[in-house]
Design goal:
single chain; alpha/beta; DNA polymerase, domain 1; TIM Barrel; 2 domains; 10-stranded mixed beta sheet; 13 helices; 12 strands; elongated
Length: 383
Amino acid sequence: MAIDLEAPRRPRPGELTFEAPRRGKPPRHVADLTPAQRRAVVAEAGFPAYRAEQVARHYFARLEPDPQRWTDVPVRERAGLAAALTPQLLTAVRELTADGGTTRKTLWRLFDGALVESVLMRYPDRVTMCISSQAGCGMNCPFCATGQAGLTRNLSTAEIVEQVVAGARELAAGEVPGGPGRVSNVVFMGMGEPMANYRAMVAAVRRLTEPLPSGLGMSARGVTVSTVGLAPRIRELAQEGLPVTLAVSLHAPDDELRDTLVPVNNRWRVDEVLDAAWEYAARTRRRVSIEYALIKDVNDQAWRADLLAKRLRGKLVHVNLIPLNPTPGSKWTASRPQDEREFVRRLEAGGIAVTVRDTRGREIDGACGQLAAASPQQAAARG
């Protein structure tokens, strides 16, 4: 299947882009709105205000997208309510599966043609969804497929939530091997920098964690928000009263290397980012996750493991080492197994809890942004 790809503007070398380009607004959706706002919208559309709760129940609790199945709503009102509160936000372009169908990556087209990705990963004890918060990314990290595509735009709250709801529907319908199930964990580790789309991201977390039927009823402790280190936003998130897990994509313990790997480090240095993370841990009492992509001969030296352990010692922290999933044509590749093992050994010797991330999805372009960045010819060949 050929995909008409929009060509986002690529950032200039060293450029940091925090604001998304202005584009048309996505349709207003029930997931964008608070319960009071939903009632107001329904009333303005000429329907009884209490219909808002019914629509929310069908969307969040019953996971029913077809208004013709809203049997507690009069037939004559169904289409109008659906138009007012549940317009279509995402269209599946392709879905690739791995691990016997328990890993499922979906490429979505948004209302304006922008492309984003989400991944559902089913494990024996949980189901995790990795979701996108932006179409593209403006952080310009050189080893990241999404970062090299540039920033297209921010996603709306509902566009973020709908990725999770779509996965929940697949699980509830028994379409994922293992029988009917539910999404237990959500990680904001797909396309984009969540903290650069702060308001929509926070509102999406609230929709995910609000009790049924106002939201999806997930535990905030099952939600992880990742950031490359926007220190002021980390401090702001600590004030939100949302005990989500904070994941800091550090990738280097020293400013000299991190300036290259994570260009935002030129604005907020390693010390400032980690200080903000420790403030977050102190306020929320949640352990901070340090994400560290191991890159061959770049950041995987033993002395960097020792320096990382020194910076983290005594803190409420866990290190998640990520074997780099290289993108086509990239000079960056995963560390040698012996270097990975030595890095783990030195962190553990320094008293730091560490795990190596499961490398699911490599055969389906598992690195975020790889599928959306594929050329139309590549997409056609794979489809």
